[in-house]
Q: What sequence folds into this?
């Protein structure tokens, strides 16, 4: 049972806090990636360790948070994950495949980008689409139950 | 699924927040339950039944 002494772990405010915190962490990671150019293998190992540490903390936080929220909040997230995430991923995939056929509509700078940048860009595009789809679906689930 | 949650809550002069705290759920969940737009799980339905000291079928109906 959620304690009154703990911060609220469900609802629009909590969802906004999670999105904002994720945005800040992502921004910090982006800055670190942009500024760390010349790194050797020992730096790579350290970065790998830090990344794994972040993942473990994120997983533990996720488990704690999932046990705090009530069943309706869990249902909303499961619905958002399936419908919002899946539909957005399908849409993003369709857009990327379409760009493969009509690549002349893309800016020349994208066409000249190295393959690894294109792969990363495609991954980020799908991820952002999924996050947007998830958020929209989560809002729809709750709005239908107001 | 229909239910008498709102009536039972009003009889006790509880707010939605009061009921939510007693059930260990959010106020939004209580609102969704009362409007019949969210059907509770069996454990939550039993918890509601125990709280109002009524059998489940006296609180929830499927018509």
A:
């Amino acid at each position: 049972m959620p304690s009154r002494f703990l911060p609220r772990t469900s609802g629009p405010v909590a969802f906004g806090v999670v999105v904002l915190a994720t945005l800040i962490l992502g921004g910090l990671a982006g800055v670190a990636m942009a500024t760390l150019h010349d790194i050797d293998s020992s730096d790579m190992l350290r970065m790998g360790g830090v990344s794994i540490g972040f993942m473990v903390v994120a997983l533990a936080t996720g488990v704690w948070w999932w046990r705090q929220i009530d069943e309706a909040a869990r249902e909303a997230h499961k619905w958002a994950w399936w419908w919002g995430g899946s539909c957005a991923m399908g849409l993003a995939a369709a857009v990327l495949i379409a760009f493969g056929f009509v690549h002349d509509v893309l800016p020349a700078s994208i066409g000249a980008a190295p393959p690894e940048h294109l792969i990363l860009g495609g991954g980020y595009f799908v991820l952002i689409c999924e996050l947007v789809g998830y958020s929209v679906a989560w809002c729809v689930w709750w709005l239908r139950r107001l | 699924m229909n239910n008498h949650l709102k009536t039972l809550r009003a009889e006790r002069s509880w707010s939605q927040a009061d009921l939510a705290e007693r059930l260990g759920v959010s106020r939004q969940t209580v609102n969704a339950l009362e409007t019949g737009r969210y059907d509770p799980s069996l454990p939550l339905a039993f918890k509601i039944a125990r709280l109002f000291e009524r059998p489940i079928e006296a609180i929830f109906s499927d018509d």
Observations:
- The two ends of chain A are 23 Å apart (CA to CA).
- Residues 1-69 of chain A form one domain.
